[in-house]
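Structure request: arginyltransferase, Torulaspora delbrueckii.
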Amino acid sequence: MSERLIITRPHYFTDTKSNCGYCSGQKERNEDYYCLDSWYAASTGSNIENCTMGFQAELMSVEIYGRLCDMGYRRSGKFLYKVDMVRNCCRLYTIRTTPDQVSITKEFKSTLKRFRKQIKPSGDGKRHDGGPFNYIREVLETETSAKDFKTCFEPAVFTDEKYTLFAKYQEHVHNDFKHNAKSFKRFLCDSPFSKETILGTKEEWDQLNNWKVMAPGEKLKRQGPAHECYYYKDELIAIAVTDFLPSGISSVYFIWDPEYHRWSLGKLSALRELCITSKTNLDFYYMGYYIDDCPKMNYKAKYGGELLDVCTQRYVPLVRLNELKSPGKLFTVEEHPAKAEGELPLNKALAHPVGRLDGAERLENTVEKIYGPNGGAYQDAIDSAKALSRIGIPYAVDERPFGMAESKHKDDETYVIPNVVPGLVPLKEILEMVLHGDINSLQNNVTFFDMYEGNIRQLQSFSNESPEIKRTLCDVIRLIGLENTKGVLLLL
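Returned structure:
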């Protein structure tokens, strides 16, 4: 039961772009809100919104969450989400890097040298080896010899001390006075993992807290959420909220004491977590979302790395994308662009480890052909929605985004996911699954729990389910793929 995926029905939320946590509706030009310049030119002046989709996860394994991260999802407590890359006011791309992709600039050197000076390690605080600057070695030597600075990994659980630091950080750095202990716990302590995973074992924490001396090839035992607490002279000065995944470390949030602003703790934490990634023999460091037209988020490019192409389930090096995409716009790249007709099949890709383009291929950004005003995605979705509706799965036609004709849905609008969303399994594939019988692989592999009635039952026959349940199941498949839907307990 501890490995079971327990989720709610998928939701789709819209809000005014002024409430976007990144742009706040303050972009310089109206066209900058649109996913493509061609959509701005073709729009009817409709208001771009902040559009997010996702689901509440009551239980999941770390392995499944790792897969979802590589589909573009992030979590806020127990809620897993990603944005609608066509309709949202900002394009949020999953970014990951590796320790060897980081170019140590003068800025990073200064951060590490300042850190060494501040914590005054034993000796005079200066390096004497005379060799080339190595940031991993610099962090290890500095912390090993420090007398007053230490960090400690521990379970991601609430304490008054942590909340006090969080409150101070939110108020002084983000001018946020609406927080409370409950919201802190929900945001940075709660998670969809089992109690055993959250608390871990003494063996896991002992090994993790001795990461500096782990041997090459030694497997890290810890998987799951963690709080790394930074202490200076026994005072809590920062907390790094992280998830340890099979493929790497995912940075969730970082809190620091404003009194230590001169330490550049944000930059320091990223460099330290890259060191930890290296020393614990993990592959990747996930830095959350990257938004290239947002100063609060585009700094992450300084650490190198690659962005997830949600349309193909492959990571693409940032250095290649700089020549292929415009800032703030949607992209999808292909080696063989002639094959791009309508949305690309995605279901099989979601069942396998995420791919990676190594930069050797000749690439072309095919986003206009697929998702532009004359792209093939929309007609495919119209045809598929009509066909699904004819066989009892109630998908209505929403012909175009941005103020074009849209059908009125009888359902609660928070459950209506648009028919074309980059990164979701296309409706055309959903139709093929139903017609070819592939969707029947969910029979006896999906469980429903009716929260109103208190009833629990297994899916026996997809064809005998109500139209609403059929649509809900298809939406789950769209969000996470057919293979990942097997074994789901769905809360209705």
